[in-house]
Automatic annotation (TrEMBL):
Biological source species: Eucalyptus globulus (Tasmanian blue gum)
Superkingdom: Eukaryota
GO biological process: carboxylic acid biosynthetic process
InterPro entries xrefs: Aminotrans_IV, Aminotransferase-like, BCAT-like_C, BCAT-like_N, Class-IV_PLP-Dep_Aminotrnsfr, P-loop_NTPase
Protein name: Branched-chain-amino-acid aminotransferase-like protein 1
Pfam family, one: Sulfotransfer_5
């Protein structure tokens, strides 16, 4: 009969022989141990202690192996072929990948490398992780994405992992797969005496060791080169076993962010553990919005970013042109020209050793441009509710709120209070009990036709705040900037907050008090309209790619 062929692809030292023994325990399965090994030795000229013996005893014409042995007739329903990824050398016809069912067995190179040296000197080529990724990618292109299993899962819970694998291969699981006899087997390749000593001692998948072996630092660079390939495949295992949490805007699942001096996919966009932002929240930031091909108030945001960096005594700061270029390139790459928000961060940079001192910052600043599709985040049609936090807003006595830094714990503690009260945000008072702003926005009130906002001594001098103050004057309304107490907010006719992320957000309830008649007020509506017009007609255009 013509058996259904199952191909297992892995790097060496990945429990692939144990897994072959496991499949060999089934009553419906015959197995082949590395049927393409001789072809690999012939084509690559690779040296092995058993090279000549193998070439004389095993078919070394890869295409013959595929046609007559791998896909040849058999006596069982299934045939399992164990392959080491690097054995898929050029010259083998397409049938190998097009036919049969394929799966990939991965193992962290951190666990492979310490025991690798036993037979051949380890190298990137010998590990074959790049080839494993290439097999994955080719099978995906063929419309046949392979199952991937990780040795760590196999060791942790063999039954569940084998069960999942069988399900993906569309074959019934058999409990016999969990145990086998110790010692050499008839199915072993003739290289077994060199490679299979420890697997011959096994009778099943042993639980993982609690602690790893010490990693040989002589293999550090090899680990560095191989790990991304393992992680790329591991990522697929994770995606299948634990679906990512729902994103507020699903389109942001695929986005490209600027980190340092390169544009990277969302999951690879990371900073070093030595970066100042990790070491001490030592970074400055801006939130910017993109409207209809233009970045609103770009120059004002960059002024504040550079002022904040200067106030914190950053050195080796990128130029304004460099920051603008990074922003434009990131937006263009993502095709984000409208309805997008940019979180722009400039950290003091990577340190040469962990610690507080800026004297350790010898690499220059790290620039991050994180763009996302993001409609305004608050309910600007019906309004939001606020509560007053007990956490006071920083005063210039300790950390000046005019510096727009990433050390946001002051605001986050207030936000926790807001979340606990099921409010949209929390009002923060200054050290004397007057209102400063909310944890994330500036705040305005209307009383008897006058518009009031706290002066900027204890709040961030927001760019939306400044824009709205200009609009208040342009709309011929009276503007007052002064200390405002909480009871004035409780008894206001209208209240709204301002910020780039949420624009103008009407506030309909504060600390359980309904503001005005609990609906969006006429002044708020008028200013929302004026703000919308302004964002439509002004801003710095994003250049087209040939202008850059
Ligand atoms: C604490 C705080 N207040 C106010 C704002 C609003 O500032 P802007 O209008 O410049 O976005 C922000 C935004 O970054 C903020 O973090």
């Amino acid at each position: 009969m013509e058996p259904m062929v199952i191909h297992s692809w892995s790097a060496p030292r990945s429990l692939s022989t144990g897994l072959m023994y496991s499949f060999a325990q089934r009553d419906d399965m015959e197995v082949l141990d590395e049927p393409l090994y001789a072809n690999f030795l012939r084509v690559t000229g690779a040296d092995r202690p058993y090279r000549e013996d193998l070439l004389s005893k095993m078919e070394s014409d890869g295409n013959k192996v595929v046609k007559d042995i791998i896909y040849g007739p058999g006596s069982k329903r299934y045939r399992y072929c164990k392959h080491i990824a690097k054995q898929r050398v050029p010259g083998i016809g397409n049938d190998l990948m097009k036919k049969g069912k394929h799966f990939i067995l991965i193992r962290n190179p951190m666990d492979i490398l310490p025991s690798f040296e036993k037979v051949v000197p380890p190298s990137f080529l010998e590990l074959g992780l790049a080839e494993l990724v290439s097999i994955y990618s080719e099978l995906c292109e063929l419309g046949n994405p392979p199952a991937i299993i990780d040795v760590a899962d196999l060791q942790q819970d063999p039954e569940a992992t084998l069960g999942r694998l069988c399900e993906e291969l569309d074959i019934p699981f058999q409990a016999a797969m969990l145990k086998w006899e110790a010692g050499p087997k008839a199915i072993d390749g003739l290289w077994a005496p060199w490679w299979y000593k420890s697997v011959h001692k096994s009778t099943g998948f042993d639980p993982p060791k609690k602690y790893p072996l010490q990693f040989p630092m002589s293999l550090y660079y090899l680990l560095e080169q191989s790990l991304p390939f393992y992680n790329l495949l591991k990522c697929q295992v994770r995606r299948r076993s634990q679906p990512t949490p729902e994103l507020p805007v699903p389109a942001n699942e695929k986005l490209l962010a600027w980190v340092g001096d390169e544009i990277l996919p969302r999951d690879s966009a990371k900073v070093s553990v030595f970066d100042s932002v990790v070491q001490g929240g030592d970074s400055v930031w801006e939130g910017l919005r993109v409207y209809d091909g233009k970045i609103f108030k770009l120059e004002e945001h960059l002024d504040r970013l550079f002022d904040s960096a200067k106030a914190l005594a950053f050195s080796n700061v990128p130029t304004r042109e460099q920051v603008k270029d990074a922003i434009f390139k990131t937006l263009i790459t993502n095709g984000m020209f409208d309805n997008a928000h940019i979180r722009l961060s400039l950290t003091r940079g990577k340190k040469v050793t962990s610690g507080m001192s800026p004297a350790f910052n010898l690499y220059g600043c790290t620039l991050i441009v994180l763009p996302e599709w993001k409609p305004p985040v608050y309910d600007n049609t019906h309004g939001i509710t606020l509560v007053t936090a007990t956490t006071r807003r920083n005063s210039p006595n300790n950390l000046d709120s005019k510096i727009h830094h990433n050390n946001l714990l002051n605001n986050i503690l207030a936000k926790v209070e807001g979340n606990n009260a099921n409010a949209d945000d929390a009002i923060m008072l200054d050290k004397d009990g007057y209102v400063s702003e909310t944890n994330a926005t500036n705040i305005f009130l209307v009383k008897k036709g006058r518009v009031l906002t706290p002066h900027a001594d204890y709040c961030l001098p927001g760019i939306t705040r400044a824009t709205v103050m200009d609009l208040v004057i342009k709309e011929n309304l009276i503007l007052e900037e002064r200390r405002i107490s909480l009871s004035e907010f409780h008894t206001a006719d209208e209240v709204w907050t301002t910020g780039t992320m949420g624009e103008l957000s009407p506030v309909v309830k504060i600390d359980g008090r309904i503001i005005g008649d609990g609906k969006v007020g006429p002044v708020t509506r008028r200013l929302q309209g004026a703000y919308k017009n302004l964002t439509g007609e002004s801003g710095v255009p994003i250049p087209t790619s040939n202008e850059l």
